[in-house]
Amino acid sequence: MTALTDLTNAGARAGLAKKQFSSEELTEAHVRAVEAARDLNAFITETPDKALEMAKASDARRAKGDGGVLEGIPLAIKDLFCTEGVLTTAGSHILDGFKPTYESTVTANLWRSGAVMLGKTNLDEFAMGSSNMTSYYGPVANPWRRPRGPKGGDNRPLVPGGSSGGSAAAVAARVALGATGTDTGGSIRQPAAFSGIVGLKPTYGRCSRWGIVAFASSLDQAGPMTRTVEDAALMLQAMAGHDPKDSTSVNAPVPDYRKALTGDIRGLKVGIPREYRIDGLAAEIDKLWQQGIAWLRAAGAEPVDISLPHTKYALPTYYIINPAEASSNLARYDGVRFGLRVPGDSLDELYENTRAAGFGKEVRRRVLIGTYVLSAGYYDAYYLKAQKVRALIANDFTEAFKTVDVVLTPSTPSAAFAAGEKMDDPIAMYLNDVFTVTVNLSGLPGISIPAGLSEDGLPLGLQLIGRAFDEETVLRSAHVLEKAADFRRTPAGVT
Amino acid sequence: MPLDRDAVRHIATLARIKVPDGELDAMAKELDGILHWVEQLKEVDTADVAPMTGTVRMALPRRRDEITDGDCRDKILANGPETAHGFFVVPKVVE
């Protein structure tokens, strides 16, 4: 039998249903795997006792004939989701000791569906980053390494991507059957691509943001990180739904996403945006993209050249809107109501000392930029201008979706890079999100699936983008692409 | 206008983040680099474009103006670094 930690969610559900093993056994195997993989630094907080208690409760429900869509399935939770009574850090010093007295809607939905919590995963501080290097709790190692060639070669630890780096590493290393992520500019899809797993950013409004530490509120969206497309469908099923506590949560029925996985994409029109063939696009990325087009064509879909003319302005637009919203959201960290407090002689000095000590470099940088672009005299030139360009970027997709059903692009401009690279130049780090950020600005659903290996043996992802609230077409085409790519490679140490 | 050390000092005060004098120049250079990069947006014609504040194309829902939550003072105070008599404690603000 397959090791319990190497099952898919779907496989584990089947095993549990046939009573081949209990949730307690499944969870115990994952708790041990979490302990054995501590070198990765994927978790900030492990919750083994809570996991086993939840697993026993799940087994009791199953014995009575009850059970939800994720009944008994052990998951990892990005440490940006507030979890009642369990330390929640956002990867920041400033939330030292913060134990929420409430549960985020998405995690509450997961527990109501029967899932089990293994712990809270590491992330870039306040989800600001593409490498997991900005976490106060230290970097996460990608379970993947470049294979050593006969002459040795570069075998340095690689980043798992970010900001959901701990979640990606945990799923790739087979220590969790799935994990939650959040995606503001690519923070689910980029680490999924770097770690050889599936990452889905749903449409803005599909999953409630209530109880998720707020970063850039018009862009943030929670989603699943899993090893298969079917598992992403299952997890989204449990996470999604209307929540009156989030005014941007959409009151629309949640479809049965697994029913979308028909394997049939005949006649589907797949947009290939010419502007994504950026200057200096790596040959191996372009090759994989062409392969993806060929796979979809072979399955009966019709590739269509499209233009998204404002693509090149997406990153600069994002790096105005994102810091502006972040500077506003992060005003709440004041040393008074929760977390770290550094004393000062006056209230202002207490604020200034606390925020200087509590925020890391990238967070300080973004709060300052955001304060600047929102300040009197600069608001129109920067923030208002960015909001207008954002409208043009979103309109590019609206126009494109009049003729195509889904859009195919690479997920990232490169494979995972070494820990410490790109740290001196913020803009070089920001460029990681060049293919993903347009989707957040437009509020659309996007998925990254592992589709091949780079020349030096690291996973690469392809991204599919859909119409708003059409996760079904995204999942259906991703499922076909997944089958064609037949990506079975696992990181070193996972057999 | 390039972002200089005085501008950084000003926005740091607005953002209530202490930036030591010795770091002002380096921070100014870094932030100025980012602002210079985003200024490429100036080349986009947005004369007739309405600003986009969010992606959800629906009116925000309204609810009845009634109390739906509350009576949870101790929960709110539970994470306060310093509390007393049911309040958060801060340095003296009124002489």
Provide structural commentary:
The complex is a heterodimer of chains A (495) and B (95). Helices cover 36% and strands 12% of the residues of chain A. Chain A contains 15 helices and 11 strands. Chain B is mainly alpha-helical. Chain B contains 3 helices and 2 strands, in the order H-H-H-E-E. A two-stranded antiparallel ribbon of chain B has the order 1-2. In chain B, a hairpin with a 2-residue loop joins strand 1 (83-84) and strand 2 (87-88). Chain B is flat, with a radius of gyration of 22 Å. Chains A and B meet through helix 9, helix 10, helix 11 and helix 12 of A and helix 1 and helix 2 of B.
Q: Strand content of the residues of chain B, in percent?
A: under 5%
Name the largest protein-protein interface in this structure. Answer: A-B, 68 and 49 residues
Amino- and carboxy-terminal Cα gap of chain A: 14 Å
Largest sheet of chain A: 8 strands, mixed
Structural class of chain B: mainly alpha
- Spans where pLDDT lies below 50 across 5 or more residues of chain A: none
Total count of helical runs of at least 4 residues of chain B = 3
Oligomer: heterodimer
Residue windows where pLDDT falls under 50 for at least 5 positions of chain B: none
- Helices and strands of chain B, in N-to-C order? HHHEE
Total beta strand runs of chain B: 2
Question: In one word, what is the shape of chain B?
Answer: flat
Question: What does this entry show, briefly?
Answer:
The complex is a heterodimer of chains A (495) and B (95). Chain A is built from 15 helices and 11 strands. Chain A has 495 residues and is α/β, with parallel strands linked by helices.
